[in-house]
Amino acid sequence: MAKRKYGRKRYYIDEKQSRSVTNCYEWAAEILAAVIAVVLIFTFIFRIVTVSGTSMYPNYYSGDKLMVTSTFGQPLEQGDVVVLVDVLQEPIIKRVIATEGQEVDIDFETGTVYVDGEALDESQFGIENGITHETDTTLERVQFPATVPEGHIFVLGDNRPVSEDSRYTAVGMVSEEKVLGKASFRFFPFERFGMVQ
Q: 69 - beta bridge partners?
């Protein structure tokens, strides 16, 4: 009479199943790494912002969606369009007119902006020259001429009659630490899709 062997049943995972499990873990790790990379990129390098208001008309309209890139310590230049935070109640978009060490003066009678004694040619920004006049506002104005302090920028909106910008003490010379980033690309509306000026 044959003896029966009693004991624990052994289970074996064949090589094909083992490879499948390993592949699943590898895929999961790659997906997780990709998600983390995207989050880091859109937190520290790229951001999507929506323009609010008309202070940058005719170049930027309320509702435009822009990609803003971090400057990462790169120097800002005259003409750059930047998004600023912690200046007014909500983020604002303005154009850099002067950087640290430069002197800004405004002749409100002729509407001319001067940087280091030279009249600024604003047609390069897609707007008219001679548009910076005094506006009806209760905001206190900065005294000109004024020199931009170290680590600061002087900004103006393209639509001068309605823009709250560095002409007024409420904004004044803006610390570069308050620059969220530089506008580089417009996603929406689609008819104006592309690089921004």
A: 46, 182
Nearest residue to 126 (alpha-carbon basis) of 57, 48, 173:
57
pLDDT bucket at 102, cuts 50 / 70 / 90: very high
* Known active-site residue 65: no
DSSP code at position 127:
S
pLDDT at 28 over 80: no
The pLDDT mean for the chain works out to 83
- Give 178's Cβ-side CA count (13 Å radius): 21
Distance of CA 92 to the CA centre of its chain: 10
Catalytic member of 65, 70, 94, 182: 94
Query: For residue 144, what is the DSSP state?
Result: S
Strands annotated E in the chain: 46-50, 65-69, 81-84, 92-99, 103-107, 112-115, 118-119, 146-147, 152-156, 174-175, 179-188, 194-195
Whole-angstrom distance, CA of residue 192 vs CA of residue 93 = 18
Q: Which of 55, 163, 166, 182 is catalytic?
A: 55
Find the helix or strand (DSSP H, E) in which 40 lies.
Answer: helix 15-44
> Are residues 47 and 151 in contact, defined by beta-carbon separation less than 8 angstroms?
no
CA–centroid distance for 188 within its chain: 15
Query: Can you give the pLDDT at residue 147?
Result: 97
Residue 67 is encoded by which pair of tokens? 């990609």
Residue 55 annotated among the catalytic residues of the structure: yes
The whole-number pLDDT of residue 40 equals: 47
| 170 sits in which H/E element | none
